[in-house]
Amino acid sequence: MKRRSTTVMIESTRKAVEGVLEDAPSFVTNWPYVVRVSMKDGLKAEIMLPRFIFKFRDVYGISYHRDYNSHIYDGTGERSHLSLVVTLKEWKKGVEAVLELSYSGKGEFWLGKTLEDFVQRIGNALKELSESRPAVEEKTEHHEIAEHVDFSDPMSVANFLAKSRMVHSGLHVIGDNGFFDLVSELRATVEENVLYISGITSDGASSFKVLLNGSRIMAIEYRGKDGVKAVKVEDEEGARKAMEIAFGIKGPYMVNVWVPVGGV
Fold first, then answer.
1. Rounded to an integer, what distance in angstroms lies between the CA atom of residue 263 and that of residue 141?
2. Environment class of residue 220 by beta-carbon count within 10 Å: exposed (0-12), middle (13-18) or buried (19+)?
3. In what order do the strands lie in the sheet with 44-51?
4. Which of 5, 121, 163, 243 sits CB 3.0–4.6 Å from 32 for a disulfide?
5. CA 15 → CA 134, 174, 214, 249, distances in Å?
6. How many Å apart are CA 34 and CA 38, to the nearest integer?
């Protein structure tokens, strides 16, 4: 078994770091070498590890669990096994995260350098995602407004939009499993943490609505040829279903983005 580790200092709160780590599908999506992520039948990630002229590719079923200080991601593939343990220690000026990556299976002998790069880049992703989250110790008024949004209740949506303003409108082509690429693109220009994103195809046959707090989906609705799927996320199972719906959104959409600004 090959093991590689790295340590990163994160200038954020422990709660913000744990918020990133606990959202396993979003966190894994931001790992390097991840080709595809699926939420069908649990969290699965297709990972391609390059070394010389070879590419060691496998699909891992990933389970997540945690103890007091550590967050563990255990991936079982057809030809290999991969696990990541992230251990946190809180300091006065931030949070220290120690990441230890273990790999066994096909290509194990060749992948030392690749695994070193893999764990370092996962650490960098954790740092960037955590430091981009606002302080979350206290709920903001905007967060409290967003918590009441439920796409099965039109009045809750109307109330939210009455206290919001549109900050973006444009045509976007969403690729396979590309919804969070769209979110990253939007967040590059929109600073607010709470976002309401809607999209509709030119023929009106498909549409979606998503409410986000940071990288966390709070509510989502998707309308397509198979009908309507809607989830208000209130627990881990709701989060899994919401991610599954989000990963199924693809194609050209006219996308509009609103942010809460208060109001009566």
1. 11
2. buried
3. 2-10, 94-105, 80-91, 70-76, 54-66, 44-51, 34-38
4. 121
5. 10, 31, 13, 30
6. 11
Tokens, residue 103: 């790999």
Phi-psi region of 34 (alpha: psi -120 to 50; beta: other; left: phi over 0): beta
Alpha-carbon span 23 to 96, nearest angstrom = 19
Question: Is residue 36 a contact partner of residue 46, using CB atoms and an 8 Å limit?
Answer: yes
Ordered strands of the 207-213 beta sheet = 164-174, 251-260, 194-200, 207-213, 216-224, 227-232
- 0.70 cut: is pTM over it? no
The identity of residue 37, as a single letter, is: V
Query: Greater confidence, 111 or 117?
Result: 117
